[in-house]
Specification:
single chain, mainly alpha, Four Helix Bundle (Hemerythrin (Met), subunit A)
């Protein structure tokens, strides 16, 4: 049981680190697109970026993807 929990946590952390690395890359390569929702083109709120600096979508798009668990969150 503990090994499964550790593996799950390691996977989650690895995914978050990959998202952080991608956000840093986006910030350096296309800074004008950082903080802009990849789905709607609208600004991602400062509150969301403060909590999740690597966010690619606004909270509305994130909520929609969570309503449909069969569909992975875009990008």
């Amino acid at each position: 049981m503990q090994a499964e929990l550790d593996a799950s946590n390691a996977t989650r952390v690895s995914r978050e680190l990959a998202e952080i690395d991608a956000a840093i890359d986006r910030l350096h390569t296309t800074p004008e697109k950082y903080g802009v929702c990849e789905d709607t083109g609208e600004d991602i709120s400062y509150e969301r970026l403060d909590l999740i600096p690597w966010a690619r979508t606004c909270a509305g798009m994130s909520a929609r993807s969570q309503e449909r668990p069969d569909q992975p969150e875009a990008r």
